[in-house]
């Protein structure tokens, strides 16, 4: 299905097209990796809604990215439960081994490192989301193993278009 | 011996599939409700059960349903709040991932009761696995006639749609969630009108939490008296407790409403880590005022915790041990609320920004005399003066930390360093 078809299918769930902006943005982000201005305009045009309505949602909600993110977005929870279970040390480790500070992307475009608010998986704190998947009960060793796995996956991924590459599913 | 009902299928292999759910008696409550009860009778059963909302506020569910006008030509909507964002809370995720049909059946029975033909389940966008499992469950249920036109041969038509959130804690506030569903920035609405009268698309709308809806089929099957016999009469039923933090066995526990917090943390969750002692426990997500270790005998129900100056909230129980700096915990909590403030009203937006700055400098050993009084003043300026409960939750949390651990805050300022570093 094309992006337009997917968005139109999602829009059929609502009596008002404006409600479909959020699902449409999620679909567009899966398609494009992030949401630059022209994509936002395309979404507005497909739904026939005001462009400003689309812009305001794309910038209000934290899961929408108007700037590119790496092939793997490492989203480490640092809320209370994860903090109590050692997320600070994990952040420090990630910053060291990736050579970047949180909020930035490695020069090769592989990893974006972010801290996020509670992921709702505190029973396996400290926890990090990468793409669709949660990784819990993390320590430095598990984190290193995960990074190695992700690098290996990236090596196997065809093409160099990092911004367009979808993160791996389950 | 308490028999778990909400988590009955949680550890069953393939617990998320329809066949497993049906084998355990699934969808019999829906069939029973359609066959034996009018919608009003289902509302009455839920009223008699004394079920109170599991999302945090503890409002009586049957009473909420009763506010929906009987007449009128507008469609009615049922919305499920699955935007679980209160730090320390993960119960709804586990229900949706491992037993999604329990929610689907709860939605169907509840929609029948209030006269809604459409439900939207607002699931936080991070919960990808839960969303997939719920999608699969809805498809399976539709296939078998539990959803769709003429559910199980009755004249009840019912459709469930999933709406993915996109990372905003404020969507857990019910009117902010409605704004978000309408495709707007999630900022709370002024009430009244209440959603039961004018909610989604200005139509009568009921918003219930995942766990609340999951209780409904059990009430229909086993009767309101069964439900009411579990835990305190005014705050009864089986309850999911999410235990996390510095504790031996973090996890999701189903136990009667009202069990002592100490029993939950020390017996069920195994107590503190080796060589450590419990310092304090947050009983209901970070909005709930922290309870120091000598207060742990309180019952885990809405009324007992309110009487103790805290709240049950989402039952996100976070254990803090004696190796942890309370200023750091308080700072992290207020940073969270500041980050998640929707920006609509000044006391929350500006007050929390200010409080974060003061807290960070105290934790960094750069606090000044008068900083604690400044924090007291900020709490007073925020509490009761905000549009929604986000500001109240932040102020209550900070107030409790300041009240119970004032010496620790003062030591940071006096010694010009964090004593835990």
Automatic annotation (TrEMBL), chain A:
CDD domains: TRX_Fd_NuoE
Keyword Metal-binding attributed: yes
Catalytic activity: a quinone + NADH + 5 H(+)(in) = a quinol + NAD(+) + 4 H(+)(out)
Residues the entry annotates as binding [2Fe-2S] cluster: 77, 82, 118, 122
UniProt cross-references to InterPro entries, sorted A to Z: NuoE-like (IPR002023), NuoE_dom (IPR042128), NuoE_N (IPR041921), Thioredoxin-like_sf (IPR036249)
One MF annotation (Gene Ontology) recorded for this entry: metal ion binding
Cofactor details (free text): Binds 1 [2Fe-2S] cluster.
Alphabetical UniProt keywords: 2Fe-2S, Iron, Iron-sulfur, Metal-binding
Needed cofactors: [2Fe-2S] cluster
PROSITE patterns assigned to the protein according to its UniProt record, in alphabetical order: COMPLEX1_24K (PS01099)
Tagged with keyword tRNA processing: no
One Pfam family, short name: 2Fe-2S_thioredx
Similarity comment: Belongs to the complex I 24 kDa subunit family.
The protein, known as: NADH-quinone oxidoreductase subunit E
From TrEMBL, chain B:
Gene Ontology molecular function terms on file: 4 iron, 4 sulfur cluster binding; FMN binding; metal ion binding; NAD binding; NADH dehydrogenase (ubiquinone) activity; quinone binding
Cofactor(s) this protein cannot do without: FMN; [4Fe-4S] cluster
Coiled coil: none
Organism of derivation: Sinorhizobium glycinis
Catalytic activity as recorded in UniProt: a quinone + NADH + 5 H(+)(in) = a quinol + NAD(+) + 4 H(+)(out)
Amino-acid biosynthesis keyword on record: no
Domain annotation NADH-ubiquinone oxidoreductase 51kDa subunit iron-sulphur binding: ranges: 327-372
UniProt-listed SMART domains: NADH_4Fe-4S
SUPFAM superfamilies given in the database record: Nqo1 FMN-binding domain-like, Nqo1 middle domain-like, Nqo1C-terminal domain-like
Family membership noted in the UniProt record: Belongs to the complex I 51 kDa subunit family.
Keywords linked to the UniProt accession: 4Fe-4S, Flavoprotein, FMN, Iron, Iron-sulfur, Metal-binding, NAD, Quinone, Translocase
Role noted for this protein: NDH-1 shuttles electrons from NADH, via FMN and iron-sulfur (Fe-S) centers, to quinones in the respiratory chain. The immediate electron acceptor for the enzyme in this species is believed to be ubiquinone. Couples the redox reaction to proton translocation (for every two electrons transferred, four hydrogen ions are translocated across the cytoplasmic membrane), and thus conserves the redox energy in a proton gradient.
EC number from the UniProt entry: 7.1.1.-
Protein name per Swiss-Prot or TrEMBL: NADH-quinone oxidoreductase subunit F
Presence of the UniProt keyword Iron-sulfur in the record: yes
């Amino acid at each position: 299905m094309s992006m337009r078809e997917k968005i139109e299918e999602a829009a059929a769930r609502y009596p008002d097209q404006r409600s479909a902006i959020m699902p449409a943005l999620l679909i567009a982000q899966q398609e494009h990796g992030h949401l630059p201005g022209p994509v936002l305009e395309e979404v507005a045009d497909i739904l026939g809604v005001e462009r400003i309505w689309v812009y305001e949602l794309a910038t209000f909600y934290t899961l929408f990215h108007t700037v590119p993110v790496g092939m793997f977005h490492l989203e480490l929870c640092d809320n209370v439960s994860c903090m109590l279970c050692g997320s600070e040390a994990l952040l420090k480790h990630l910053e060291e081994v990736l050579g970047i500070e949180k909020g930035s992307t490695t020069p090769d475009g592989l990893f974006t490192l972010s801290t996020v608010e509670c992921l709702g998986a505190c029973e396996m704190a400290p926890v990090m989301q990468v793409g669709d998947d949660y990784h819990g009960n993390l320590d430095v060793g598990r984190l290193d193993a995960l990074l190695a796995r992700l690098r290996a996956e990236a090596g196997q991924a065809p093409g160099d278009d990092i911004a367009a590459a979808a993160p791996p599913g389950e | 011996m308490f028999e778990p009902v909400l988590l009955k299928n949680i550890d069953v292999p393939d617990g998320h599939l329809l066949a497993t759910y049906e084998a355990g008696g699934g969808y019999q409550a829906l069939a029973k409700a359609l066959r034996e009860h009018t919608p009003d009778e289902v509302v009455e059963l839920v009223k008699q059960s004394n079920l109170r909302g599991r999302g945090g506020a503890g409002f009586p569910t049957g009473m909420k349903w009763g506010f929906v006008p009987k007449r009128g030509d507008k469609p009615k909507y049922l919305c499920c709040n699955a935007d679980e964002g209160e730090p320390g809370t993960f119960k709804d995720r586990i229900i949706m991932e491992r037993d999604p049909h329990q929610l689907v059946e709860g939605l169907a029975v509840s929609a029948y009761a209030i006269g809604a033909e459409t439900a939207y389940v607002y699931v936080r966008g991070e919960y990808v696995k839960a969303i997939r499992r719920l999608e699969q469950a809805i498809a399976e249920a539709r296939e078998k006639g539990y959803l769709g036109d003429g559910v199980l041969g009755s004249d009840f038509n019912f459709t469930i749609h999933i709406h993915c959130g996109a990372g905003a804690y404020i969507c857990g506030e019910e009117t902010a969630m409605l704004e978000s569903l309408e495709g707007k920035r999630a900022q709370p609405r002024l009430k009244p009108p209440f959603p039961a009268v004018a909610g989604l698309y200005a139509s009568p709308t009921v918003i219930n939490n995942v766990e609340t809806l999951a209780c409904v089929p059990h009430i229909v099957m086993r009767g309101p008296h069964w439900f009411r016999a579990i835990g305190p009469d005014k705050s009864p039923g089986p309850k999911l407790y999410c235990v996390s933090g510095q504790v031996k066995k973090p996890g999701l526990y189903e136990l009667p409403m009202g069990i002592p917090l100490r029993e939950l943390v020390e017996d069920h969750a195994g107590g503190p880590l080796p060589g450590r002692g419990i310092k304090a426990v947050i009983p209901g997500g970070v909005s709930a005022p922290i309870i120091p270790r000598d207060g742990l005998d309180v019952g885990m129900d809405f009324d007992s915790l309110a009487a103790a100056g805290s709240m049950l909230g989402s039952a996100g129980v976070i254990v803090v041990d004696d190796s942890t700096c309370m200023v750091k915990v308080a700072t992290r909590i207020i940073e969270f609320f500041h980050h998640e403030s929707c920006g609509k009203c000044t006391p929350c937006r500006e007050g929390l920004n200010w409080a974060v700055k003061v807290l960070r400098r105290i934790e960094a050993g750069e606090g000044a005399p008068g900083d604690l009084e400044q924090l007291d003043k900020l709490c007073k300026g925020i509490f009761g003066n905000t549009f929604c409960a986000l500001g109240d939750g932040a102020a209550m949390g900070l107030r409790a930390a300041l009240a119970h651990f004032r010496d620790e805050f003062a030591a940071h300022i006096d010694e010009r360093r964090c004593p835990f570093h």
